[in-house]
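To whoever is covering the structure queue this week,

Two jobs came back overnight. Logging them here so there's a record in the thread.

Job A:
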Amino acid sequence: MDEAMEWVRRIASPAFSVMLDTYELAESEPSIEHGIRAGRGEARHIHLYDPSRWPPGIRTQTTLDWPQIFGLLRETGFAGSASVVLVPEGAAAPAAHKTAAFLRDVLGGSTGARQ
């Protein structure tokens, strides 16, 4: 993220920003918190993807602390969009409904998602 943010500063255009990806932040950054904070309000999209390869809210044992991640996004003023990978295998619809319910619960209301 530090390198990506250097490119954002060099290009200095409102049309150029960064995309956060929770899987990549967990794999490549010292911490997810470091990666989110390094975005310094320049991230316009976040891809919500657990290293288990399942979307948020599906597995009871996850490697990511989703409430903490969303708290950090709020704290850093993230106002962009988000996406999820629905399932690595099987039917997508049940996973989509479960993920949407989880996100509504964690985010404290409407996620803007349609069921």
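Job B:
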Amino acid sequence: MSKTNPPAVVLLSGGLDSATVLAIARQQGFAVHAMSFDYGQRHRFELDCAKRIAEQSAAVKHVITRIDLRVFGASALTSSDIAVPKHRDVADMSAGIPVTYVPARNTIFLSFALAWAEVLGSGDIFIGVNALDYSGYPDCRPEYIHAYENMAHLATRAGVEGRQKLKIHTPLIAMTKAQIIARGLSLGVDYAATSTCYDPTPDGKACGCCDACLLRLKGFAENGVADPASYAGHQ
């Protein structure tokens, strides 16, 4: 990608949604600077996927920031004492905030992305939040994103001096998982390189039973396409 392309920070977990968002950012002409987080998550295998996706997508740079949210716990993703929910109906997933919610995670991630964007002279951050076909995380709602943008304009030197007008791009926020997959397939996203599972095996195979796996499988089925991910118990 040409150096004349404007830089954008893309939050890249290594999952299906963030890989799709990265492809959308590239399609829109941004020079992608990918940022991932090693935050003590039990599904740390996703970071290996993030590395592959960043390489495949020719990201200008990919950084993995290390913070340890296990010191707070209170989430099935950062505490071994809390089990990841399995075999839930989609209706149950949308009822209340699940134990896989990580306290303030997107606020923390966006703050790191905001700092890097200021250094890059960028006003664009991409994040794969979704408010439809997913659990009811409070930091995935449009009103949260808008509030963060307003805060960011007061939080940085570039914002106060008028050199940065931050835009948080959320291209997936009103899409179903099936629509997200369809968009990604049209952009050539290699979903075999992604990991969505909250509770994978040590070698990275998906459990096929957690909320994230069930929604992913449902999305591929609705597209009439086989999920290329590797699942435990399957060849």
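Note for Job B: The radius of gyration is 17 Å.

Please reply-all if you pick these up so we don't duplicate work.
Q.
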